[in-house]
Design goal:
By secondary structure, the protein is α/β, with parallel strands linked by helices. Helix content is 35%, strand content 14%. The longest helix has 18 residues, at 75-92.
């Protein structure tokens, strides 16, 4: 009914968090696919897609979350790591549309192994990623528009993934 809706995402990291099993997620995705006319997927961390090819068969496209910060990857290696992951998904599932449904870098908080958050790091990582992704024709979403102060369940970095701070001021040019 709504022409501005171009896709449906059923669940977000529910397999990764073990909130649902793969068969449960497939069943729900299939139910939604029967009810809508737009492509349907589910949002999962990239490795979940590689570990569960049966999930790939049940969706119209792969909506992979690629967040190298949570893997302890240094900011300077993040874009190369992300492109490598994208290529790995494309190689594993030729012909299947792959979207990097979540990509980002925190501007504040604690380091996670060799990954250090910061405004300069965030600006550099995001600019480099967007430039490379656009050059490769990769579809992506940046996480996220505005800092979410309530995301304390993700630790000290959870609230600081936005391009804008919580008062909606841009963090960088």
């Amino acid at each position: 009914r709504y022409s501005y809706v171009n896709s449906g995402i059923v669940g977000n990291e529910t397999i990764y968090r073990a909130d649902q099993t793969v068969p449960e997620r497939i069943k729900k995705s299939q139910r939604v696919k029967r009810a809508v006319t737009v492509p349907v997927s589910t949002g999962e961390i990239w490795n979940v897609w590689l570990e569960h090819p049966e999930l790939v068969s049940a969706v119209d496209y792969i909506a992979a979350h690629v967040l190298p910060y949570w893997e302890g990857v240094p900011a300077g290696n993040t874009v190369d790591q992300s492109i490598m992951i994208y290529d790995k998904l494309r190689a594993a599932y030729p012909g299947k549309r792959v979207v990097i449904a979540e990509f980002g870098w925190p501007s504040e908080g604690y380091n996670y192994h060799n990954a250090y958050p910061g405004r300069t790091e965030q600006a550099t990582v995001l600019r480099d990623f967007v430039k490379r992704a656009d050059a490769y024709g990769i579809e992506y979403n940046i996480v996220e528009a505005i800092d979410q102060t309530w995301k304390t369940f993700e630790g000290g970095v959870g609230p600081y993934w936005g391009l804008f701070d919580a008062s909606r001021h841009p963090k960088f040019e």
